[in-house]
Each structure stands twice: as structure tokens, then as C-alpha cells.
Design goal:
alpha+beta, 2 domains, seven-stranded mixed sheet, 6 helices, 26% helix
Length: 290
């Protein structure tokens, strides 16, 4: 029988407001009460907007908590500033976990809260004897890619076209919600040091798949090099005014690149960023370990 979330003693909530120099001051614990579940709904609205059609209601969070679901919250005092929510089920006759949502309030971002929530989720699933978890993220989000690929060490296993349809969230700009499906082994210890995000000179000489080539780029021409780069937007969460049309162009181009790459045996091994040129690239290869 799957253990109940209430089987685990909840640590007391932290006091005070976490600062960017002390992200560990945010307390992480299970959400258990209807009021806490409603706070999670409010946080979803704050993150994805009131127009978001996929908000998980408090009633479903309540039910999930009774049947092996996992809802963890990060608190500053009594205020919920972040959460992660997922469901446990069966995939190919194996009990696994699907992490459905991770959200952090805007004022608490860039503080490591998302990473701590994912690590707490991993640890709790391992304690429950669930060895594998899955989730999705948008391949065009460089910051999420850094967290997932470089810090958490996920394995990208598939590219899903328009997985969630049109959600209504302003964050999604009305374009197709293409997603990476990723897998994480919960039995492995978290990475203490993330994969470097800095683009080394050797990487910049690799063939590049990009809809916006620049002078000096080595353009991928259909050959199958052992290693190549796929460019994504530098940072679409950085207020740089990327329009819906521009994002659609990125979406359609990168969809083609990733589908071609996965068809020909490539896998994502890292995300690298060239801060001087303000460019971000996935490294894809057909050899070596992530």
C-alpha cells in the first residue's frame, strides 16, 4: 500500500522572510489542510494567471493527498511561496510518480526554492520506495532547462507536441505547449555541483541548429556529428519582450530540430549559455554520459 503523506512528520515552518543570500530559510513541508490547499490554488493563479484553465482545485489536491499524491510547500513564516505537486500511478507495471506542477512566487524566484522543492520531492519518493519520477518542462525556457538538466540531472526521454493544448495562461502566449518529458532516478544522490552553463570555445565551434544564425555560426546541414547545439531563446522570462510571433517561430524551428535529433539517436546532455552573446544552447550528443 502506498504510504500516506501524513505518515511523515512535518517539520515546523520557518519564520521570517527568506533572502537571496539565505534561500535555506524557507521551510518545506507537506500541505495537509484545506486552507493550505486553497493557498496552493491562489499561488497557481499568481504564477500562471487567472486565465489559466489547468489550475488544480483544492478538492483534487485534497483527494490526491489521500491516495499517494505528493504536495510539498515552501513557506516563509505562514506564507506559501512555492509548491510542487504530483501524482503516483502505474507505468508499464511499475509504481512511478508524475510531478505535475512546480510554482514559485515571482518575489521568491532566483533563490533556489524550486531546486529545494524538487530535491525534497525526490527524497520523499525514494523514502516511499518509488524509484522513478517523470515530469515535463518547456524546452524554450532556459532557466528551467538549467534547473532540470544541469542541476537535477534529468534524462530527456521524449518530445511531446502540444502536450497540454491551449491553456489560457499569459505565460504560454497562446502557442503550442510542446514539452520535454524527462525522467529522474530518485535513488541517486542530488548533484552537489551543477553542470557548467558557460559555453566554452569548443562548444561554440560545434554545428548549430538555429532559426536565427549569426556571423561565424557553423550551421548544421543534415550531417550527423557526434555533438551539436540546438539554440533556444536567451531568456524569455527576463522581460525582453519576445512576441508571440517570435516565440512561435522558435517553437516550430526547435520542434523540427529536436524531433530530428531524437530520431537519429541524440540525447540532451547539457544546457550552455554564452552570456557575452546572450545565447543559450542545448548540447546534444550520440556518445558519452550526461
Amino acid at each position: 500500500m502506498l504510504p500516506h503523506t501524513r505518515d511523515v512528520p512535518a517539520p515546523p515552518p520557518a519564520t521570517g522572510v527568506p533572502s537571496k543570500t539565505d534561500p535555506e530559510s524557507a521551510g518545506i513541508r507537506h500541505l495537509e489542510t484545506l486552507d493550505e490547499f486553497q493557498s496552493c490554488v491562489d499561488l497557481q493563479i499568481a504564477v500562471w494567471g487567472a486565465e489559466f484553465t489547468d489550475i488544480v482545485p483544492a478538492s483534487i489536491l485534497q483527494v490526491a493527498s489521500h491516495i499517494g499524491g505528493l504536495i510539498l510547500g515552501a513557506f516563509a513564516g505562514d506564507t506559501l511561496i512555492g509548491f510542487v505537486f504530483g501524482l503516483t500511478g502505474v507505468r508499464h507495471d511499475e509504481v512511478v510518480h508524475w510531478s505535475h506542477m512546480l510554482g514559485v512566487r515571482a518575489e521568491a524566484r532566483e533563490m533556489g526554492i524550486g531546486r529545494r522543492l524538487k530535491e525534497a520531492q525526490r527524497a520523499e519518493l525514494a523514502r516511499r520506495g518509488i524509484a522513478r519520477e517523470f515530469w515535463t518542462f518547456d524546452p524554450l525556457q532556459a532557466r528551467n532547462a538549467h534547473l532540470n538538466v544541469n542541476r537535477l540531472g534529468v534524462r530527456v526521454i521524449d518530445y511531446a507536441v502540444n502536450m497540454y493544448g491551449t491553456t489560457g495562461s499569459p505565460l504560454h502566449l497562446g502557442i503550442a505547449t510542446d514539452r520535454f518529458i524527462v525522467e529522474l532516478d530518485t535513488t541517486k544522490a542530488p548533484r552537489l555541483t551543477p553542470v557548467s552553463t558557460k559555453a566554452e570555445p569548443a562548444h561554440l565551434s560545434l554545428p548549430i541548429f538555429t532559426p536565427l544564425p549569426r556571423v561565424g555560426d557553423v550551421i548544421a546541414d543534415g550531417d550527423r556529428p557526434s555533438t551539436a547545439l540546438i539554440e533556444i531563446p536567451w531568456d524569455v522570462q527576463d522581460g525582453n519582450g519576445v512576441s508571440a510571433d517570435e516565440m512561435l517561430n522558435w517553437r516550430m524551428a526547435t520542434r523540427t530540430y529536436f524531433q530530428w535529433a531524437f530520431l537519429h539517436g541524440y540525447r540532451v546532455s547539457a544546457l550552455h549559455r554564452d552570456h557575452e552573446a546572450q545565447r543559450a544552447f542545448y548540447v546534444i550528443d550520440r556518445n558519452g554520459d550526461v
